[in-house]
Structures are given as C-alpha cells and as structure tokens.
Amino acid sequence: MAQPDLTSHHVNYLIWRYLQESGHGEAALTLQRAWNLDPQSLSFAPYIKTHALVSLVQKGLQYHELEHSVDPDGNPTAFTSSDYFFGPAPLEPEPEKGRSGPGEAGVGTDQAPVSPTTSKVARDGGVINGHLTAEAAVPQPAASTSVKKARKSDRGEANGDEVPMDVDSNGVATENPPAADGSPATAEMAVDGDGDVSMGIRPDSQDQEPPAAAPPTFTLTTGHSVGVQITPAKAADLGPDTAILDVASADHVTRALWRPKDPTVVVAAGDSFCSLWKLSSSAAPVQEKLVENKGDSTCVSAVAWDPLGQKLAVATYNDMRGSITMYDVSGNAVDLLPEVPRMITGLHWAESGSHLIVVASDSRISELALWDDSLRPDEFPSPHVVDGSIFDLCWLGPNQAFASGNGIVYQCDVDSSIHVSKTFSSGNDRPWTFIRCVNAGTSSVAVTASSANATLWVPTHDILVDGAHEGDITAIELKPNMEQQPLQSLVLASSSTDDTVKVWHIDLESKTFNLIHRLFLGPTSPALASTFSPDGFALAAASKEGLFIWNAQRGGTPLATWKAPEREERKEKKEDDEMSSVVNGHNGTVESVPDRSLAWDTDGKKLAFGFGNQLAIVNLQR
C-alpha cells in the first residue's frame, strides 16, 4: 500500500508538535491560530509518535549521506565534509538560556511541569546533521561497512568540529562537555536498522519492556517559550486596521456580539436599539435595524445568537411585559415567542442544540424557563421561581447550569425543564454580579464575583477572596480550553475600575487564588470590560476609549493597543460630565461607570469594541 501524498497539513502538524515538544508553546499556538485551530482533529494525528519531525529529518539526512556515498553504478565513493547537507562549517553552540529573561518573570507560570521522559532528547549523546556524535554498535549492510568505518574515523565527530549537544526541557541546546582525554563524550544511544535514534535509552535497558507511549502534548502545557518569543518592548498600534461604525445617535452601545463562525456579521445593541451589521472587505458596511428608538418606552433587555448562528434572539420590554423576537441573519423577524409578565434580563443558549434558558427577573422574584426552539410550544414553559434577583447565568455542558443572585449561587439541572438542585450561600446578601463555569476533570467549578465588594468566590469548592481589587469588578473570564489543562491550572481574569486586569491561578486542592499577572492600563484608565480570545492566547481589556491586548501567558507589556480618535462632540460631552458629577459619594462626588463591550469573533482575528454610540471593528489578522 503506497504512502499518501505529503501535504501542507502533514508538514504543519509535524512542526506544531515539534514546537510543543521543544517547549516553544507560544510559537506553536501562533502557528495553530494561523493554520488550524484544532490540529488534533486531523485524521493522521493519533498515529504521530513523539519526536516524529526529528526522526524524519534524521532519516532524510542519512539517506542524503547514503545517496552521496555511492556512484550511479552502486560503487562506494568518498564522502567529504563538503557533501554534508548543512555544509562543512561547524555550527556555533548556542549558549544556554535561562527559564526566563528580563521582563519575563511570569513566563511559564501557568504551565504544567515537564515530564522528564518526554522532555529530554538524546540526553547522553547527540545527533548533529543526522550523524551520531560517537560510535554505536549498529549492524550495517556488508557493501557499505568499510566505507562507513573509514568515513567515521576520518572525521571523528559529526559534521565538522561541533561539540555534542543536549536538548533540555525548554528546547534550548546545551553543551555536552568532552571526556577528560579530550575525546567526545561517549553517546549512550543506539540506532535501529531503519536509522532511528533511541531517545535517551541506555544500552543496558534495551532489552527491557519499553515504556508506554506518552499521550499527545497539547499547546502551552509543557516547556517555556524562549528566544525570539519575548514580549515586544513597544505595543503595536491597531489604529490603521480599525474601522469605526456610528451605530446609534443618542444611545450607548452596551452589547456587541459576533455571529458564530462568521466574522462578517456583528450585532450592536443598546437600551433602545439593536442593529445587525454586515461587513465586507470591498464595500461599505450594511446596517439592518432590528429595534430602533421611536420615542416610546420600549427597551432592549437581552440579545443572544443561537449556537449555529441561524437565529438571533432579541428580548424587549414594554408596558410591564417582556417579549422575545427571533431574527435570521438577514434581519428578518422569523418567530415571536409568548410574552412573560416581567422584564427578560437574560438569554442563554446552550453550547449546542436548541435549548435556551430565559431569565426574567425583578427586585422581588426571578423566573428560570427552558425554551426548546425545536419544539416551539404555544405557551411559554412553566418557569422555576426563586426569591430575589438573578444577575447572571452560565451553562456547564448540556444538562447543568449555574446562576448567581443575592448571597446565593444556584446549581440547576436541565432536562425537559430547568430546576434548582442545590444552593450555595455566602452568608451575606452581597450581589454576585458575574458567574462563569468550567469542568475541571470530573469536578464542576463555578466562579463568581461581587462587583461592588471586589470579592471572588468559588462556591463549588468553598474558596473566598475579599479585596481582590481596589475598585469595582467589571468582568471575570475563565481562560478557554480548560479541559486540556490540569486541575491546578484553572486561570481566571478579573478587570476593575482600579485601572487593572488581574490574572489568577485557582488551585482547587489548596483552595487558594494565586495572582500571576497584574496588568496596568494606565492612570485614570479603568478596565471596564475584558475577555480572552477563543483559544486563550490573548487577553483584551477596554478602558473608556482605549483597547489593550496582552499575551495571556506572559502578561507584562501589551502586545497591541488602540485609542479612539477624539471627536468634538465627545470632547464637549466629557467636559459636561465632569461639570455635572453627582454629589453623593466618596469625597462628595461619584462618577458613573460607562458601558463598554468587547467581543472576539470565533477565529480570534477580529475584536468588536463598543464605546459610546460607536462600534470599533479591530482587525488583528496582520
């Protein structure tokens, strides 16, 4: 059976795996973002062994040597240093790099320990340009035995005068010192009949049972990024690649959301409007108005796309009743759900399927109802009623959800309806404003935050942190792809009006929050919104009229920034706001926190930033 044709996917996958195994997690993730967001889903991925690229290149170099060792008639010929694939000049040994350099104090702190069985390659010997650095007892074909021996004795070591090298766990080559007599260190490795090098297996263990193959190593779970992958000293300016849309006249953008798997459709919504924008690289953006301010008291209270991007649910409130209208991607109303007798404050689609949890809440009671869009009942399903307000809700898989209220977090089971199965009490009435959920191994984890109290709480594991920030918390976000991370590597970002975004490690076993990054936006620049990119590579935060993007692993200096251009009307409004501060707070004045929204598209290549009555579309592809 013939081997399949080599494609760019094969080559990219081998490079991607090599970068991970060498510890260059950031470079691997950059390749992943530009090529394939899920390389492990490729059909051939389960068959690729550890160090496959190195093994394949070694075989290629050995074939290159054999090809130049015989003439067209099959007779042995002299093989000199000028015939080496990489040329006769020796490669200068690279000085050993530390685990972190200047400005990299936090590098690698959210990575799992490196396994010594997979991180050390050729620990007691080296292979340079495909050649062993010392003799190994390997059976060779009789016709080429004399040629091989003569060639090895002529050069003494591989490809010139290089010093044999090791590869440490972060992919940095380190010098292997020669023996006392000046000869190269003895290489304790073997080569099989196909020319494969045994990766650090000593001769006396060759006849032992080989260890089980290590599972595939996922990006950013092993090693440390080194070399050129240092956060740039100066942040890139995103201004040239940003388009600004005027989406409202007198209202403010409070929500921005991309259509799933479609970077050409984005929705902007405020209290009195909702519009759908179709973007094009060759034409002006086209706006479809779904709800607009007609001078009545209708307000938009919630907006959400279904997981396939086929329907956009828009909740409105008027005359003490809430209603939900479904729109298609062209902006046409395709369905109207039954009304409910209170404001709909939340629309939450399951990650897959047709289930939508509808939250209707006021100051006295809240209702949780499960709508199945595939069944479309004539009446709204009977809700589960809880006392007090529900501030936020998140799904955890297809059959569980968590909701946060005043002093309580509710664990809900979802089947044909939704009902509370367990409650967690914080012992006080503080409002738990935000909640996020994740599965960590076999454990369900819910993380919530109280905005005004600047408190973080993990009710499922009884972890409470008071005074997490010096100002109000404006957003929390769990780093995506946690199912690929070990239990102790749960990562949370929290933003605050104290001008910072903080990145935490949550250790569920020791029940602690460990601060790993404190990202500063600048004086009087409150972080009003923050969110991770879909792959967890980047962390974005918004101030009043600025945007900051960091490498989520490294922190430090932002990778890129953007500042909204000053407009006369905005300048005048800012002056008016400063003159009309409300006399009711600390030191006699309190400044209201403006609404800001951030949303990544599915590919993580565009950001929608809602500020004032405008929406900035930031293109990150370059």
UniProtKB/TrEMBL annotation:
Signal peptide: none
Record keyword Nucleus present: yes
GO CC, one annotated term: Set3 complex
GO MF annotation list: transcription corepressor activity
Repeat found in the keyword field: yes
UniProt cross-references to InterPro entries, sorted A to Z: Ebi-like (IPR045183), LisH (IPR006594), WD40/YVTN_repeat-like_dom_sf (IPR015943), WD40_repeat_dom_sf (IPR036322), WD40_rpt (IPR001680)
Subcellular location: Nucleus
Pfam families: LisH, WD40
Superkingdom to which the source organism belongs: Eukaryota
One annotated GO biological process: regulation of transcription by RNA polymerase II
Keywords, ordered alphabetically: Nucleus, Repeat, WD repeat
Repeat positions for WD: 466-514
Region feature Disordered, mapped onto this chain: 69-221, 563-588
Predominant cellular place of this UniProt entry's protein: nucleus
Ranges annotated as biased composition (Basic and acidic residues): 564-576
PANTHER family: F-BOX-LIKE_WD REPEAT-CONTAINING PROTEIN EBI, WD40 REPEAT PROTEIN
Protein name (Swiss-Prot/TrEMBL): WD repeat protein
Organism: Aspergillus heteromorphus CBS 117.55
